[in-house]
Structure prediction request, 561 residues.
Amino acid sequence: MTDAPSAPAVLVEGLRKTYGATVAVDDVSLAVEHGEVLGILGPNGAGKTTTVESIAGLRTGDAGRIRVHGLDPWTQRDALVRVLGVQLQSSALQPKITVREALELWTAFYDDPVPWGDLTDALGLTEHLDRRFLDLSGGQQQRLSIALALVGRPRVAILDELSTGLDPRARRDVWRLVRDLRDRGVTVLLVTHSMEEAQELCDRIAIIDAGRVRALGTPDELVRTSTAATIVSFEVPGRADLDVLRGLDGVTTVRVDDRRVVVEGAEDVVLAVLAALDAQRVVPQRLRVAAGSLDTAYLDLTTTLTEETA
Amino acid sequence: MSTLVSPGTVAVLRTEARLFGREVGSLFWIVAFPVVLLCVMGFIPGYREPDPELGGLRVVDLYVPVTVLLSMIMAAILAMPPVVFAYREAGVLRRLRTTPVRPLTLLAAQVGLHGAAVAASTVLLLLVGSLAFGTPVPASPGWYLLAYVLALVVSFGLGAIVTAIAPNARIGMAVGMVLFFPSMFTAGVWFPVQAMGGLLQRVVELTPLGAASQALHQAMAGQAPDLQHLGVMALWTVVCFGIASRTFRWE
Prediction:
C-alpha cells in the first residue's frame, strides 16, 4: 500500500507499547504535515520518548502503525534512515573520537550530506573540532549530537530534548537552526520540557500524558482552552471586594501580587471583571490584559506532573 | 573501492582504526607483551637447550605458539569486550541504528582491527623468535594458516560470549577474567601443552586454546594438524557464536 502524495510526513495511528506490566504508550495517534514543527510535551514517563523512538524505528510497537514518508519504520528501516535524522535524548559517541572525526564519519554515511562546516558554524562547534568527545562539555556534546542528526540532510528530524543542558546563547543558536530547518521544508518532531521553546518554535503542540495525546493544537489554541487563557491585572486605589470577582463565571484565580490584583480566567472574563468592578464603583488603574501562557494550559492537561510536584 | 563495500563502511573502518591507535594499553598487551614474554623465555639459558623429554625440542620453541595464542586471547577476551561494552552502554550502537550504517559494521571493524593487531604480533613473534633464538618458522605454511585462522576465530568466539552474557562492563570484566585465566593455562602459558603429557594433555586438547596450541605446534613441525584439533576448534566456534548471537543485546 502506498500513501497518497498528500499523506502527512509522519503518521502515527493507535500506537501502543508496553514493557511487561508497564504501559509506556497507551494509544497515541498523530499526523504531522510536511514542513511542520510539531512539539511533543508531557511529564517525565508520559511516553514521549517511546513515541519518537518508535517513529525512528528503534522500538516496535505492540499495536498500531506508523508511516514516515510512507515508510514503515518497523520493517523498512533501510529506506527510513535515508529520510530521517535523529538526535536521541541519551546517546554518546566513541569516547576518544574528535568532533571533526565524528562529523566526517557521519558525512560518509549519506549520499547528499550537508557541508558539516555550516553546522559547526551555526552551532558554535568550529573551535572545538579537534577535541575528543570525552573532553567536551555536556552542552558541546549535545550540539555535536544535533549536528550529526542533521548532516544527512534529513526530510524528517527527530530532536529529543534539543536544548537540555544548553546555555541561553547556545539555546538561541539551536532555535535558529530549527527555524532554518522549517524554512527549508524539513518536518521536525521536537520533544521538549520547555514551554518557552515550544511556544517559540512549534507550529503545533501535542501534549502527551500517561501514554495518550491529551491535546493537539497550535500554541494559541492550547492557551485558549486553558483555564487561564486571559490574565487581567490592575491596581485599585481604594478597597474592592475581590470575592465578587472570584464568583464570576470563567474566573479561575484571583490574587494580589505586590498591590496588583491579578485575575486569571477564560477568554471572555475581561468584560465581566470590569462590569463587576464598575458595580462596586471601583475604577481600575493601570489595567493590563495579557494572553495566558502555555504553562497553565499544560498544567491543566497533565495530571501526573502536578501530583508529583505536590 | 569495490561496490560491495559502501563508503560508510570504509569510513567506519578508518575511524575505528584511528581510535584503536589511541588505545595504547590494548596495543601493548596484544602486540608488545607476547614478544617481551618470548624474549624473557629465550634469555633463560636452560630453555635454549634441546630437551630429550620434549623430543629434542627446546622450551623456547614451544613458547612460539604459546605467545601467539596469548596475543589472541589478550585481544579477544581482554581488549575487545570493553570496547563493545563502552559502545553499547554509551548508546553508540543504538545511535548507529538510526543511520544507513548498521551497528554490526562497527563491531566487525573492531574485531577486524583487533585481529590485525594479533596478526602483527604473530609476524613479530615469528621474526624475533627465528632471528634471536633460532625458533623454527612454520614448515607447513598452509596448515599453519588454517590452524591460525581457526584459533583466532575461536578466540573471538570466547570474546563474543563475554560481551553477550555480561549485562554491563563491570560484570564483563569479571567474566572476561574467568575465561582468560583458564585460556592462558590451556594455551600453555605456564606449562606448554606439548610438555603436559598424559591425562592432562588429553583434557586440555579438548579446550579451544589447547586444541589451537596442538594444531599450531603440528603445523609448525610440518605435519598436517590432527583432524581432532581442527574439529574441536570448529565446534567451540559454532557453540560460542551460537550462544552469543542468541543472547547479545544491542542496547
